[in-house]
Batch of 2 targets.
Target 1
Amino acid sequence: MEKIQEIKKTFFAYRNGIVADSLRKAGDRHAMIFGLNIPQIVGIANSIGQDAHLARQLWNNSNSRESRLLAPMLFPSGEMSYDEACLWIEGVENVEIADNLCHKLLKKTPCAEKLFQKYAISDSELLRYAAFRLAMNLLCINAAADRAAMLDAARNEVARDCKLTRAVAGDIVEEIESTKTA
């Protein structure tokens, strides 16, 4: 609990009311928003190091935007099980949290592609968004094993014409098709 208190003190020291107010006005529903930017949170993560227990505590503090952003940066990717990854991805509350979770943690897990396959067909737009964001991250690090299935899923998502997922699914189609012809 002492580490959590230290982290909260750091969040408070870096707080930016203007950014926090802007996030609230933009629809962020976290009860506690300090207004830190990602480089500040990365700096905090780097000073702490990897710690699965602490990451879980922070992730479970779903009232705090910064706790939800910091947690994936602290979790050792090799320790993330498929079941726990499912719980985390199902707990995302907005695209910022989804983007960060996929970029900082899930793309590095052994179950990343399995997560994509599961959530790319979800009824939830936000879960599909997270799945396609994860797929894009896998493509960027050249870690997508089944690019054909990813392309088919992305094409289907583009055809669905969902406002939330259209751009990222379109980017995946473009990325895979451009590398096929190169």
Target 2
Amino acid sequence: MRKKTDTSWQPVAGWYKKSVGKEGHTYHQEVVLPGLLSLLKIHAPKAQSLLDLACGQGVLARSLPQEWRYAGVDLSPSLIAFAKQHDRSALHRYYVGDITDPALDLGKELFDCAAVVLALQNVEEPHQVFANAARCLKSSGTLFLILNHPCFRIPRQSFWQVDEQKKCRFRRLESYLSPMKIPVQMHPSQGKDSPVTWSFHHPLSSYSQWLFESGFAIEVMQEWCSPKESQGRLAKMENRSRQEFPLFLAIVARKR
């Protein structure tokens, strides 16, 4: 039997809590949470409950309407402890658990929505996440996926480069269709002593196929760009390239 990779962020939980904090980092605040909340209003206007798979320290929970029921699941005990510490809602609950485990037990409640926010690329078995989401959703429930764009944000395989002759910055891709398991040093300056997390790359066609096999139909896809703006000599080309190569991909899928 193939040994399963330990993908928990427990070893880097301290760094992650400082980096993201209670309210989320800049991308959470300016792009991800506003975009996701907008999608929820459009595609699940009557929803009042949400399952947050790989919830981290519960940033999404603190952005939902107060009357919503919420359950968050994450493999890191430290991140779950942080989430509980900063969430006083009696309608919210948290679990330490593996979202790829076929035996994941969250009780009998079914949810209107499920979400996986900026975590799917760190999961070794996305198809099992979709299967668990389908099992925990009501009929016609909605799944919201937000991930680093799998076409343009591939660790060690995608890079920014500048064409001085054309005066433009472009994205260079060295691989895309092949699935990849990529170690990521969280503190590169520490060399071999740096904690390592894992990034798992898959092409869009794989996500589409896994969603279909798990009983979902994709309703909409959105591509979200970085809000950063450069200054200085290369600002014009850098700002233009950010608006041409999206940072995040959002997928809304309905349980069939």
